[in-house]
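Before a colleague's protein record goes any further, I have to sign it off. I want your independent view on whether this chain really folds as the tokens say. The record follows directly below this note.
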Amino acid sequence: MAQTQAFQQAVQHLADRDRENLRQGRCVVVQSQNRHQGFILIDADQETLWEVITDYENFPSFLPTVIEARVVEDEGDRKLVEQVDEREVLFTTVTSRIQTENVETPPHQVSFQMTEGDLTRFQGCWQAIAASTESDRPTLLLQTVAAEAGVGPLEMVFDQVLERSLKENLESISRETDRRCRLTPD
């Protein structure tokens, strides 16, 4: 596959084994300081992937820890989204609520920043990057997240939970995108 320049730039800092995992369809998550990046190649065009990552109110139907999601305010390419997550952490169920301001740049990027919620900081972006110069498939989904929970010595546990959640969400988005592609064949 002849790769786009944007794809090459997005993955250039990945280790060789991570690039190989990505080529084999595996999700790759890397961390540096308080920033996590998750990568997955999805066999879909950017538009279909865009429909999935901006389908906020249906997140509970395909993202494993999201139990509620709603658009609180819609101003075209700017949306306020409230989301409630529930997950197991250290043998207990933890429920968290955040509200993010999502700024959409169709069909390539959604930038988000927490405006209210249970975390100290939560911001980042989704990017749908065409991978091939020869076809509209596959598309690289890259999520970058900078987050802090403000839990002092337990921040390492939070980082592990965030890394696992990022991987689970990317894999779930890939499955949902695949499902939607099968519903509307070329």
About this structure: The first strand starts at residue 28 and ends at 32. The chain has five helices and eight strands.
